[in-house]
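lol so apparently i was supposed to do this last week
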Amino acid sequence: MRHIMVTGGAGFIGSNFVRYMLQNYPAYNIVVYDKLTYAGRLENLQDVAEAFEGRYAFVKGDICDADRVEQTIKQHRIDTLINFAAETHVDRSLVEPGSFIQTDVYGTYVLLEAARKFELERYHQISTDEVYGQVLDGRSTEADHLEPRSPYAASKASGDLMVLAYQESWNLPITITRGSNNIGPYQYPEKVVPLFTTNAIDDRPLPVYGDGKQMRDYQYVLDHCTGIDTVLHKGVLGEIYNVGTGSEITNIEMTKIILHTLGKSENLIQYVEDRPGHDRRYALDISKLCALGWNSTVPCEAAIEQTVHWYVANAWWWQPIKNGELYKAYYAQQYAQRLEKGAAVG
Ligand code: NAD
Ligand code: DAU
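anyway here it is w/ DAU bound
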């Protein structure tokens, strides 16, 4: 029997992971601990709460709140902590870096202290390929130096370094996974694939940053989940594992796949002012994880198509988000000027 605490489990990847684990490990119990920021939503776990009553619990809490974290660990006899909780959107980190430092760095420290105090069997940190910085040639291996370039990436890299420091200093049983761009069900429509898909469904412009030739490894979220599962069960303590498809496409290619899947015109594409410090390419070497017997199963193009189909079928989930005042304010701040300037240039 494992008692797992999943911090950030009401977000995109966390909720997919919780569903996957409860379906695949009947002996495991999971407690989701989540602050429910704009990105955390109980709707993401509605079906889980119904299907796995008795093996699933939800606690609303901030990972920066040490007392609440400790109380949850004690009350639910937690032996394994998996930390998904983070501020995650690069564009927001360029506007307001403070909350990224608070959650992604200080919050990680609070969780590590708790893991040490309660002598947990495992602390697993969910990290990102962005910590390596942009990779113009070749692929990032787990031994590469960290060269983060955005406040988001720097906060995640700091979290990773703290995790490694706890392993070195106190022999904390840790593992880290560094994933590439995830796509799939329940991704908040600020990230590019759900943003472009839902805009296209509504016949609104798709704001492509810069020349659209930046490269990303778009992986289906369930492949990331099986990668984390593999590391939890077969990974070596103290080690880091990259998780991705191991291949990349350009943003403009990704955009055209979305439009073609929906049968929409490429006239919806609008090139707009670039993201400051925009990383040109991320590319992962995934051989270390593959050596544990894991493989990515969904190629990039199919992952995008499956994701588009989910958003078409699940407007109940994203329409209330996009119609909300918070989202509209974010969209105006991020895109109003860009789209106006882009239209003037065009
Ligand atoms: P998300 O933004 O969808 O969800 C983040 C979750 O964390 C939300 O439920 C939110 O409420 C919660 N949270 C935020 N601050 C918190 C706090 N202080 N205390 C408790 N909960 C808090 O994020 P996601 O895309 O699912 O990413 C999950 C993790 O995976 C993050 O650590 C992210 O850095 C990492 N990651 C994401 C991707 C990607 O493509 N989305 C790729 C690689 C790694
Ligand atoms: O690589 C893993 C990372 O992927 C995760 O760690 C992050 O949490 C996640 O947000 C994601 O970061 P990106 O910055 O790569 O994702 P985003 O969806 O914001 O952007 C993907 C690409 O699309 C990037 O090159 C910027 C571009 N883009 C994005 C938006 C939102 C656009 O061209 N237009 C847009 O409106």
